[in-house]
């Protein structure tokens, strides 16, 4: 906290720090495999921030005792967000493609506003429930459950339409998105799958570029887990997920490598998780192209298991594994893994192909590495005939391109078939000599230099 306070004290321009979702801390702590209470004392840390007059903090949270403590003892001001108005409701209706038509004696916006009681989440669920505009009636809207704070009434209404609730229970226990095919493989009652998904469609979101299906809002997850825990063992649901992850192969499947050990820990199957702590763990992890961050995450899982089970031999193994991982760091604590990223990434391309190598750079649509290391990967992919999505690293090319990023900028322009002659001409000034050297080197590597120069001379003497 001392370092943060020091940084804040040197900032002269007005800034606003936004921290959202503080009410989720306890839920995350209860369901996390390895998080400790010490690591989630966010509110305590916030209370120790020394704010200059030009720095403000905005906290987003439902009411909790911890947040109330900030308003009572640390001069934070509590502002309750108002319920949505009719105009807000009308705007969301239009975004869902509905017209604010009159139904019987009232407009659709009024009927939905009254039913949702100004809750944007419940209004969203209702709009996703309604279906085609010509099927909407006043009776249909009135048949939906009355609004309550945690939407328990609506969730009960929804899940009561499912013959077997395992689909929503599995979704509620998943820490990652899945495709429809993957979800169907996980659930035990597969013949109800299509009907279940149709019923659950208002409370799920589906985005193939982000991994597939996930719950739209965390309140439905909490509802299912609390309900399931009241009459059954949640480990039964974890077992379905564990079985699926295990079948896919720990090292060869990204999701298995990321999540299998977590689920063993959640279900307290420490002996099963321990089987993966062998002498080949590090070499196999690198061979299958897993990042340094993921390898360290699984090392932490092994360490957590050793602590929980008082397994001294696993403690020793974890210490040796940590030492082996640490050998990738130089005395200056610069990662040799990242310093040699291009060599490593090219090895992945050579062994597994460009498609697998590109997948290493992303997970559920999010980058696994910095923009610069992602750009290094993209440049290597181009050598193997793969066309990467350079727009993912556009931040490197905004305004003036830094010298250390210029080679990636040229690779991007080559793929986009942009006019390289114009770039070449702009670099002829003496102050751009270093850029020109990189430009010529990159075109030479691509066997494009002679053609580009010939084109430039033709234009000049035409």
Describe what you observe in this structure.
The chain has about 450 residues and is mainly α. The protein has 5 domains: about 70 residues, no CATH class; about 60 residues; about 80 residues, Arc Repressor Mutant, subunit A (Orthogonal Bundle), CATH 1.10.10; about 90 residues, no CATH class; about 100 residues, no CATH class. It has 27 helices and 8 strands. The strands form 4 sheets. A two-stranded parallel sheet has the order 1-2. A two-stranded antiparallel ribbon has the order 3-4. Strands 5-6 form a two-stranded antiparallel sheet. It is globular, with a radius of gyration of 27 Å. About 0% of the residues have low confidence.
Uncertain stretches? 329-333
Q: How big is the Rg? A: 27 Å
Taking all residues together, what is the mean pLDDT? 87
What is the total number of structural domains? 5
* Biggest sheet overview: 2 strands, parallel
Helix content bin: 55-70%
Through-space gap between termini: 66 Å
Look at the helices and sheets and give the structural class.
mainly alpha
> Biggest sheet, strands in spatial order?
1-2
Global shape: globular
Q: Helix count?
A: 27
How many strand elements?
Answer: 8
The share of residues in extended strands comes to 5-15%
């Amino acid at each position: 906290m001392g370092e943060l306070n020091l940084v804040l004290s040197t900032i002269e321009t007005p800034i606003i720090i936004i921290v959202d979702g503080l009410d989720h801390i306890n839920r995350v702590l209860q369901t996390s495999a390895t998080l400790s209470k010490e690591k989630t004392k966010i509110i305590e840390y916030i209370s120790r921030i020394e704010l200059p007059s030009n720095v403000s903090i905005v906290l987003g949270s439902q009411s909790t005792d911890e947040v109330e403590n900030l308003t009572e003892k640390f001069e934070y001001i509590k502002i309750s967000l108002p319920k949505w108005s009719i105009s807000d409701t009308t705007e969301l209706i239009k975004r869902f493609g509905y017209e604010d038509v009159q139904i019987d004696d009232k407009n659709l916006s009024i009927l939905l506003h009254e039913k949702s009681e100004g809750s944007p989440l419940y209004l969203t669920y209702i709009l996703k429930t309604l279906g085609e505009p010509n099927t909407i009636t006043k009776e249909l809207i009135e048949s939906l459950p009355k609004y309550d704070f945690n939407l328990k009434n609506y969730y009960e209404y929804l899940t009561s339409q499912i013959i077997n609730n395992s689909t929503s229970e599995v979704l509620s226990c998943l820490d990652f998105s899945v495709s429809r095919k993957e979800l169907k493989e996980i659930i035990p009652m597969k013949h109800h799958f299509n009907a279940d998904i149709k019923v659950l469609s208002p409370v799920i979101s589906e985005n193939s570029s982000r991994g597939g299906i996930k719950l739209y809002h965390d309140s439905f997850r909490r509802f299912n887990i609390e309900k399931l825990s009241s009459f059954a063992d949640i480990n039964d649901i974890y077992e379905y997920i564990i079985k699926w992850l295990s079948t896919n192969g720990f090292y060869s499947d990204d999701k298995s490598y990321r999540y299998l050990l977590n689920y063993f820990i959640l279900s307290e199957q420490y002996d099963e998780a321990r089987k993966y702590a062998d002498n080949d763990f590090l070499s196999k992890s690198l061979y299958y192209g897993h990042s340094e961050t993921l390898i360290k995450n699984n090392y932490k899982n092994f360490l957590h298991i050793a602590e929980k089970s008082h397994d001294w031999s696993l403690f020793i193994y974890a210490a040796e594994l940590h030492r082996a991982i640490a050998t990738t760091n130089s005395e200056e604590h610069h990662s040799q893994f990242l310093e040699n990223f291009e060599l490593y990434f090219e090895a992945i391309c050579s062994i597994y192909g460009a498609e697998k190598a590109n997948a290493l750079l992303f997970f559920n649509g999010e980058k696994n590495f910095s923009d610069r290391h992602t750009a290094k990967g993209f440049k290597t992919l181009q050598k193997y005939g793969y066309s990467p999505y350079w727009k993912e690293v556009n931040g490197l090319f905004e305004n003036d391109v830094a010298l250390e990023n210029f080679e990636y900028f040229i690779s991007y322009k080559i793929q986009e078939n942009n006019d390289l002659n114009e770039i070449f001409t702009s670099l002829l000034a003496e102050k751009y000599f270093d850029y020109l050297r990189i430009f010529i080197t990159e075109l030479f590597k691509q066997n494009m230099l002679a053609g580009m120069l010939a084109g430039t001379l033709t234009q000049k003497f035409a």
